[in-house]
Amino acid sequence: MAIFKRKRMINESYFNGFILLGFTEHPQLEMIISGIVFFFYTIALMGNMAIILLSFLDDHLQTPMYFFLRNLAILDLCYTTNIVPQMLVNTWGKDKRITFGGCAFQLFNAVTLCIVECILLAVMSYDRFSAVCKPLHYTAIMNSQLCQGLVAMAWLVSVISCMILSPYAMSLPRCGNHLDHFFCEISAMLKVACVDTTAMEVATFLACLVIALVPLLLILVSYGFIAVTVLKIKSATGRQKALGTCSSHLIVVFIFYGTLIYVYIQPGNSPNQDEGKLLSIFYSIVTPSLNPLIYTLRNKEFKGAMKRLIGKEKPSMDTIGP
Predict the structure, then answer these.
(1) Do the bridges between strand 178-179 and strand 18-20 make them parallel or antiparallel, or are there none, so unpaired?
(2) Residue 63's beta-bridge partner residues?
(3) CB 116 within 8 A of CB 150
(4) pLDDT tens-digit profile of 30-61?
(5) CB 61 within 8 A of CB 302
(6) What torsion, rounded to 10 degrees, do the Cα atoms 155, 277, 183, 14 define?
(7) Is 200 in contact with 169 (CB distance < 8 Å)?
(8) DSSP code for 98
(9) Where would I find the H helices in the chain?
(10) pTM of the entire structure?
(11) Torsion region of 193: left, alpha or beta (phi above 0 gives left; psi -120 to 50 gives alpha)
């Protein structure tokens, strides 16, 4: 057995890729976590695919709000799929390896998609601001060209930011290839580097600060104006309707940013490795599965679209003769 372990260590040392440790120090916990991840991944797949299909198929959902929601669903679908399949393969099998190219691809996608989500949530808050504060000009303001341009801008900024951060992290000389994480992540890459990474850590922290807090500031400003407008509405029904259009987005912002800030924007007070991994699971896997539920369970238009789709597939009793 000792000879086998020694041979395995030799093979891993010559392996050019990485070994994702995940939660191997707690094998029972690892299996429980993998089961929970699989459950939420299934929900994320079904929920986000439902949003994408319905927003394409139903004419009543051809509005800026659902355009952005469809993009968020596509984003969440890509985010979870980038991480979960490889994680489950490594957890359920004996081989914990990932190739260098696979790790670089996973890292690039994870960073890019995370930045896109930050910006897209800010864009969605501007959409809600326009709908509540300037309802008469909403259609003119949120035209299709602007909506498509905002989404394209989010992707462009994210790709450029990622091309600055990710290549440097992957090119650092390594003292080992064991990443203490369940996916390829920048902080885990820095921990196996053989050189002083202080400058890179500071740069990463500052980048996270700008990438996360600038969109968050825009969200807070938008909702500040929305709050002022809602308080001026005399009708209780009008206030409730205005708040109803924003509550789902606010819940998503709170969940996503809460865990993201706690994990990455805590200089000198970062969570321990296991806690960081658990929180990473929450914002990268659990949150994308909750988004469809948060946006659809309280949304009458979406429920109506679902009923209409089912009505197209199943003839109603009114159309069936006696």
Answers:
(1) parallel
(2) none
(3) no
(4) 888 888 889 999 999 998 998 898 888 877 78
(5) yes
(6) 140
(7) yes
(8) E
(9) 2-14, 27-57, 64-92, 100-133, 138-141, 144-171, 186-191, 198-232, 236-264, 273-281, 287-297, 300-313
(10) 0.84
(11) beta
